[in-house]
């Protein structure tokens, strides 16, 4: 089938049921999009499809026919994506970085739909998990991007009433996701190994 990614058209050979994530990573070699849980829980695999954020680990590639996929590799080709990346750098958001391509895709998708989102809209959209706990830095970057003052992360956390509730909600989500991952991890990892072996490529 044909797959449109980052304004290019690719002929892919993967089965239609193959998750989009593995086509992106293994067949096309774009390894910026990450595998976290494989269960649509963490958001590490987030890409944009027709401008909306989507978790590619659970989306069959066959569902992408006629749609436009954007990955982190091309996010700065979009002016909104470039602004997000610039803000991420200014606020020094990434720590280990593993979740950040998904975070940037989620932020870009939100800001393309709502130029100046409210704090509630930001909290509702930025639900990806981060094991390094970069939530306050993400919040500060998003505050700036939404037309706020761009306050440092510590100040943003201290002056925004919604921050404790949001952080608590994220932590509960992380615990719930971890429990789900614990149950499904073995099967997911085994499935991943099979796909990697088939593709014959080393993961980045
Ligand atoms: S890897 Fe897709 S949501 Fe976690
Ligand atoms: S920066 Fe490490 S997991 Fe988010």
Automatic annotation (TrEMBL):
The keyword Iron-sulfur applies. CDD domains: fer2 (cd00207). Keywords: 2Fe-2S, Iron, Iron-sulfur, Metal-binding, Oxidoreductase. InterPro entries: 2Fe-2S-bd, 2Fe-2S-bd_dom_sf, 2Fe-2S_ferredoxin-like_sf, 2Fe-2S_ferredoxin-type, 2Fe2S_fd_BS, Beta-grasp_dom_sf, Diverse_Oxidoreductases. Residues 1-75 form the 2Fe-2S ferredoxin-type domain. PANTHER family: BLR6218 PROTEIN, OXIDOREDUCTASE WITH IRON-SULFUR SUBUNIT. This is 2Fe-2S ferredoxin.
């Amino acid at each position: 089938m044909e797959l449109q990614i980052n304004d290019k058209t690719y002929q892919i050979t993967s089965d239609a049921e193959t998750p989009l994530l593995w086509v992106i990573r293994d067949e096309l070699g774009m390894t910026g999009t990450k595998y976290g849980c494989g269960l649509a829980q963490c958001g590490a695999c987030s890409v944009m499809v027709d401008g909306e954020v989507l978790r590619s680990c659970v989306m069959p590639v066959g569902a992408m026919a006629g749609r436009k996929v954007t990955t982190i590799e091309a996010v700065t080709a979009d002016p909104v994506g470039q602004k997000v990346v610039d803000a991420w750098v200014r606020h020094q958001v990434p720590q280990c970085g593993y979740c950040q391509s998904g975070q940037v895709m989620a932020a870009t998708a939100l800001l393309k739909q709502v130029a100046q989102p409210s704090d509630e809209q930001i909290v509702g959209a930025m639900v990806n998990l981060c094991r390094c706990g970069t939530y306050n830095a993400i919040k500060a970057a998003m505050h700036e991007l939404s037309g706020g003052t761009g306050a440092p992360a510590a100040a943003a956390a201290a002056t925004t009433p919604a921050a404790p509730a949001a952080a608590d909600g994220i932590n509960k989500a992380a615990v719930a996701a971890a429990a789900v991952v614990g149950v499904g991890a073995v099967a997911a990892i085994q499935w991943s190994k099979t796909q990697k072996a088939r593709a014959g490529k080393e993961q980045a």
